[in-house]
Amino acid sequence: MSELVSTRIRNTAGKLGLPHLAEALTQYAQRADEAKMGYLDFIDLVLSEELAVREDRRFRTGLRISKLPHHKTLDDYDFSFQPELDPRKVKDLATLSFVEAKANAALLGPPGVGKTHITVALAVAACRAGYSIYFTSLDDMVRNLKAAETTGRLTSKLGSYLRPAVLVVDEVGYQPLERAEANLVFQVISKRYEKGSIILTSNKTFSEWGQVFGDEVLATAILDRLLHHCDVISINGPSYRLKNRLAAIERDQESAA
């Protein structure tokens, strides 16, 4: 490829918003020459590479604005430590059919069993598939909504929890809510009903949500909308955090012996 043609292609690629093509043109040309590619194969190579770069850029941007606490995947989860948890149920969720159907998923169990890990892994998978994600703890969401309501910005703030295709709500039940706070949660749940997915974690059974939300009627209204289309997974095994802490203590004791 002549330098003149190469320069013209780079300039055209820049104008078309294809910066990666402009940067990697020489590399593509070498690969095509070595493989003795035809014209159509070369075009397919260039377009496929450009699409892959764009998808990776979109994925990384999506993760950055998602507020996820980490980016762990299901490959990082030790299912052997939770023998009562059926991996097939989790992997069925990972197909994201519930996200496509604008349904919900709930993971219940005591602290430390890996609920947030699985939830984040599902969110990462959804982000890679092209869905927008937003992560929040229930306490943070309530605090932000209360502050917005005080300053007359509630409608705008609600939008940040209504726009994403998948809203992840972590730690439902760790702190009881006042009725006014529970009503703000109801607004989010009801407005997202059949319009976007929610993935949540809770250390409380659904029968205890009346205590969490300070009102049995309001809790029932929230559960009615949340559970109408919802996959529920309960994890009742030992704590990963306690396991890791005990292992560290044992190593320290062995070193001191």
UniProtKB/TrEMBL annotation:
It comes from the Bacteria. Pfam families: IstB_IS21. The keyword Acetylation does not apply. GO terms for molecular function: ATP binding. One of its GO terms (biological process) is DNA replication. InterPro entries: AAA+_ATPase (IPR003593), DNAC/IstB-like (IPR028350), IstB (IPR047661), IstB_ATP-bd (IPR002611), P-loop_NTPase (IPR027417). Keywords: ATP-binding, Nucleotide-binding. Residues 101-234 form the AAA+ ATPase domain. Belongs to the IS21/IS1162 putative ATP-binding protein family. PANTHER family: ATP-BINDING PROTEIN RV3427C IN INSERTION SEQUENCE-RELATED, CHROMOSOMAL REPLICATION INITIATOR PROTEIN DNAA. This is AAA family ATPase. The lineage of its organism: Bacteria, Bacillati, Actinomycetota, Actinomycetes, Kitasatosporales.
